[in-house]
Amino acid sequence: MSLQLLAEPLSIYLNDHLTGAFGGTALAHRMADTHPDSRRAADLRQLARDVEQDRDDLVRIMNSLAVPVRHYRTWLGLAGERIGRLKPNGTLARRSPLSDLIELEAMRTGVEGKTALWRALRSIAETDPRLSAEELDRLIQRAAEQARTLNGWHQAISAEILSGKGATSGASTGSTAHSTAL
Fold first, then answer.
1. CB burial class (10 A; 0-12, 13-18, 19+) of residue 51?
2. How does DSSP assign 158-180, residue by residue?
3. What is the per-residue pLDDT for 179?
4. Over residues 50-60, mean pLDDT
5. CB atoms near residue 52 (< 10 Å)
6. ∠ CA 71-74-78 to the nearest 5 degrees?
7. What is the pLDDT of residues 30-42, one digit of tens each?
C-alpha cells in the first residue's frame, strides 16, 4: 500500500490519539495538583510530566509524518477531561473517594491506548524512514513503566477505597471525609 493511501487513516488515527493525549495530560496534571502532599505526590508529578512529554512526542512524530494537527480535536480532549469531572460519584459539593479510583482507571486506559499507538507505529517503522524504531521502542518502554506504576496504585487504592478504608463516615453530620488515597 502506498504512503498516499495510508495518509488519511494515519492522520485520523494519530489525531484521535492526540485528542486522548490532551485529555490525559490534563487529567494527569489535575491528579498531581489534587494530591500535592500525598505519599505519591512526587510520583504523580513525574507521571504528569511523562504524559505531557508523550503528548509532545506524538506531535513531533505527527510533524515528521506530515500529519496536520487538527487543533479542534485537542480542544475536544481538554473538554472531555473537564466534562469527566461532572460524573456522579456519590457527592455533589466535594471530591468523592471514588474520584481517585475512577481517575486512576481513566489514566490506565489512556496508557493502554498509548501503548497500542506506539506499537502500531513501531509496526511500520521498518518500512517508513520517517519513523525511528529506537524512539518508538523507548516510548513503548516508558508506557510499560507507566502501566506498572498505575497498576500498582490501582491495586492499593481500589482495596483502600472499596473496603471503606479510604473514607470515614461522619455519623453526626452525614458527611464523608476523604483521605488522600493517592
1. buried
2. HHHHHTTTTEEEETTTTEEEE--
3. 46
4. 96
5. 17
6. 145
7. 889 888 888 888 8
One-letter identity of residue 140: I
Q: Using CB atoms within 10 A of its CB, is residue 114 exposed (0-12), middle (13-18) or buried (19+)?
A: buried
Calculate Rg over the CA atoms of the chain.
Answer: 19
In whole angstroms, what is the distance from residue 123 CA to residue 41 CA?
36
| β-bridge partners, 176 | 169
Per the structure block, which three cell numbers stand in for 38?
A: 500525598
* Cell numbers standing for residue 19: 485528542
Q: In this structure, what C-alpha cell is assigned to residue 146?
A: 507507566
Q: How far, in Å, are 53, 89, 155, 168, 175 from residue 141 at the CA level?
A: 14, 34, 21, 39, 43
- Which helix H or strand E contains 142, and what residues bound it? helix 133-162
Residue-by-residue DSSP string for 34-100: H-TTSTTHHHHHHHHHHHHHHHHHHHHHHHHTTPPP-HHHHHHHHHHHHHHTT---S-SSS--HHHH
- Residue 125: in which H helix or E strand, if any? helix 97-125
What would the pLDDT profile of 93-118 be if each residue is shown by its tens digit? 667 778 888 889 999 999 999 999 99
In this model, does residue 62 exceed pLDDT 60? Answer: yes
CA distance 143 to 145: 5
